[in-house]
């Protein structure tokens, strides 16, 4: 009787789903059903070591079962520099990311700031930087909560879709958002969970006499219940629609870790919830009419962080201004704000663009060109020495007149890069076992035309890494857990690459190949 009841219940749910899809005029994919599909679940900001520890505590039972029972290969990989979502996703979806130096940066050819989560700017990157890519991962597929649209045509929930000017076009793009809301069971379940949790949070806030605690927990819960839940619901619908490729970014862990730190209890709770979502998507992919390859990965990890200004009480702009002197340009902290650029581009300004543990400094007097070390030292001789003496700055990258790039480190150590390769090393600029790998990654970053005139990397202070944004969990730089995300797969070729320590570019290339030869995706 029980199996019969379950079968009837599933048929009823499927029937209501089809009804909702037809009601909103949402149709199936036209890609032939015999072509293989791929579903990539990205758990934003979840490092390999943190997930391993979470599995040991039993907080990620489904992902653990994939490894133990289903023989999925699980391992870490080096995500490159910068360890930023927009750079790693660009490599995964488009196969190129060399001109993305941070989350917030200045595009020298376009003459404007770029920030990863700004709709119009993300759309602009796809129209320029990735215009020549003919086979992005999710072309003719679906991208849900991704940094880029990737030319997804089934479902496109990205900054680019938010930038659509036509209200009708925007509705057509985002009508899949309405599908879960037409499910009264899901809607009321979310409301009941939210209401019950808010009562508990109010009691906790009263006990701790902290309004901040309440609002932090409240907004975390809103993200947890609505954004991730909604994204997974839409992804399940797309599996039923036979979408040939689906990429879904679950950003809860990243957001919670920034606020509370990677070892906080609420991070473990967030991973437990994400684990349930992964199971839901796995089960849906198994019964879908198209055969799917199922992959779970993260884009980067996070390391324990300490906000920069709490180290000495001096903010980054104050530090730069001290190194410049009273008669020099003033430093302005900005996060890719175009109004800031428009108001200050005619004045003598230093724009400081922080991205977690990496920050780029751009001198307006030389934009759009890049200043060299010799030029900076000529006009501001005390700037680089002042920056290097701060305990929150571990390294500085700067271009030289001869076309090489120098990485300055503590104790007068340095490395020189030329044409994307290590040219020379003096002392121990990176005193870690994987120093050669990290220096090679920085050599590649040195070829980016959009780097700041000075590129600052947060140093280690105590047991944490300095963050130029007010984060307790940080990434963006090139050391520690932040550059060691994970990948989980049962694809033989991808498993071999992972176990052999292949580069993330080779790993991502294999994922893009999974669409099959019949597809127009390479």
Primary descriptors:
eight-stranded mixed sheet, 43% helix, Alkaline Phosphatase, subunit A, 21 strands, 522 residues, globular, 2 domains, seven-stranded mixed sheet, disordered C terminus, alpha/beta
Would you give an account of this structure?
It contains 20 helices and 21 strands. By secondary structure, it is an alpha/beta fold. The chain folds into two domains: 2-96 and 133-185 and 224-300 and 485-513, Alkaline Phosphatase, subunit A; 306-472, no CATH class. The strands form four sheets. It has an eight-stranded mixed β-sheet with strand order 10-11-12-17-13-14-15-16, sandwiched between helices. β15 (414-418) and β16 form a beta hairpin. It is globular and about 80 Å long. Residues 517-522 have low confidence and may be disordered.
Helix content: 40-55%
Provide the structure class. Answer: alpha/beta
Distance between the termini: 48 Å
Question: Unreliable segments (pLDDT under 50, ≥5 consecutive)?
Answer: 517-522
**Under the CATH scheme, which class of the largest domain?**
Alpha Beta
Number of strands: 21
Average pLDDT confidence is 86
Per DSSP, the total helix count is 20
Largest sheet: 8 strands, mixed
Strand content is 15-25%
How many domain regions? Answer: 2
CATH level 3 topology of the largest domain:
Alkaline Phosphatase, subunit A
Give Rg in angstroms.
24 Å
Bulk shape: globular
Q: What topology, given as strand order, has the largest sheet?
A: 10-11-12-17-13-14-15-16
Identify the CATH homologous superfamily of the largest domain.
Alkaline Phosphatase, subunit A
CATH architecture of the largest domain: 3-Layer(aba) Sandwich
